Known about the structure:
- By secondary structure, this protein is of the alpha/beta class.
- Helix content is 39%, strand content 13%.
- It has 18 helices and 11 strands.
- The strands form 3 sheets. The protein has a 6-stranded parallel beta sheet, sandwiched between helices. Strands 7-8-9 form a 3-stranded antiparallel beta sheet, with helices on one face. A two-stranded antiparallel ribbon has the order 10-11.
Amino acid sequence: MTEGRGALAGLRVLDFTQSLAGPYGTQILADLGAEVLKVEVVGIGDATRGAGPYHPSDTEKRHAGYFHSVNRNKHSIALNLKDPASHEIVFDLIQQYDVVIENFRAGTMEKLGLSYEILKERKPGLIYAALRGFGDPRSGNSPYVNWPSLDVVAQAMGGINAVTGSDPAIPTKVGPGIGDIIPGMFLAIGTLAAVVHRDRTGEGQFLDVAMVDSILAISERIVYQRSFGNVIAGGVGNHQPFMAPFGIYPASDGFAAIAVSNQTYFATLCRALDADDLLADERFSTPDGRRIYRDELIAALSVHTSRFTKAELMQRLGGVVPFGPVYNMAEIAKDPHFAVRNMLPEIEIEGLSEPLSIAGVPIKMMGTPCDVRHPGPDLGADTDAVLRAAGRTPEQIRELRARGVVG
């Protein structure tokens, strides 16, 4: 099953993750060339398999878009982890794999008899990565360690909701599931750092990423605003609290982002929009003035931008000042940038009437390209191959299947 391509070719990951956060992290590793074997529950599989949406030609509802979006380039084995017989399979597999990754609630793998300590006894150099809502007791025993967490919980407690939205009194959820996705990214980064350390020293280790910690980390501004400026940040809407103009402005057919970070850009912006009145206004003549009179500048500039369509603003401002139209997915699909960057690759899924696009790989490497090699695996698609590689005979595999140990 080894892919044999990509910067991480040869790295083998035993992936016990489910839903979004963990699978997003392990998919990053798979996109980079690691061989990722997804361990799923017999007969059930990852919960996202049943989450949809389904293509109209998928009459059996076998292929959920959610699942394929975060499980491409992986393989699957189905095990009943509550059966001790499956543990022997895991013990054999870790001898062939470099990394174990899981995102169960704290204590789950211990109850199953598959804790880091037990696995480490059998493979001292093992890297074991855990992703949980509030972390693992081994690296800081949070009072919430046993609480379940999902995206919106991490967004709320990590501080990002409180500074999102137009009304400081009403928090707003960020649209995409960043409470899952950002921790998944940190999980991948931490795993790669542990691999580098192991390759240098031979030492494995336990690493732990908390969803709530991850959101606080990317919300770093709110920390220094409090400690340096004695300010408890609130929602600032579509504009940046320190600089102006720096935010979302109206067009006649939608909205666009404009970000002016210096005096030259401001002068260029005003000239490109025929906004000599803004350039002549002493209130806006310096960065401090634009910050102090931020609300007045936003209102005045909005009058100018709303005279143009998004396309007209792009023609005037694109490449001249930091600028970008606010796109929906239909507009993204039409823009040549995303095509030439291969950010909407298509996967062909057996039984479906047409190829379907998913989000591409944003990491571009010249020598070891990252790519989308195949869609997410069917539940247990690689069970037999994996068991054979682990030394099980066809007769033993049939017996394990008949007993419900594997699927």
